[in-house]
Specification:
The protein has 259 residues and is mainly α. The chain has 14 helices and no strands. The longest helix has 30 residues, at 228-257. The radius of gyration is 23 Å and the shape is elongated.
Length: 259
Amino acid sequence: LKARVTQHAIVLLEESKKALATGDFEGALSLVDSAETFAPNYVGVHFIRGQVFDKLKMYDQSEESYALVLSIDPKHQGVHFNLGNNAFNQGKFQKAANEFRQELMLNQRTDVLVNIARAYSNLYELDSARSALMTALAIDSTFASAYILMGQLFKDIGEIDKGIDYTTRALELDSSNIDYKYLLGSMLLQAGKFQGALPHLKSVSEKRPWDYWAHNNLGLVLIRLGYKEKGEKYLAVADSLQNFESDIESARNQAQSNP
């Protein structure tokens, strides 16, 4: 009988995962609550409830849910990873690093190592960040996000050529990633490699007609390459996008101050 009840809870939890994936948070919570009536001590109930609270940015409630998971199964994979992400999103980078470290003891995953590196880079502990990334790449030499973060770390300490090398490798591994194209194009611009920057920034501006920085940087590249008129057009578009953003921000602030 217990197994059948738990199986019923599992079915409800699978439905709650689907609701969560589609952004139906109220439906997901309702299904989790129903599952709990069949299996109150089932670890999946509390874990998925925690995931719903994560999405709702209700971090205190998600922490309570994950505490219940750990009280049932102290080595449940994913709990410390999620807690680390929540801490990171709140700017609590030391707590994030600690949570990711605990997850790493349970599971040597490359995405955990990259998140450790992100936390350490925000704490300006660059040697620790690089060490985590090198470990990630030793596990999986094709993990693009490790290369992209390594590229950013080198750029930030002024080693732009190394930054370009790592960012280029990331884009080779994930050639359709528009963020990687932007980062590489901007680094090449910074390094004075205007011809190399041109195709990447052009691609980003076409895919993201609302992106101020893509248009601004493309305009600068075109001017440096001698296409003054074309470049100035992109700079004018960038200015109008910046003004539009400023107007939206002003309207938002006004709405908040006059509810």
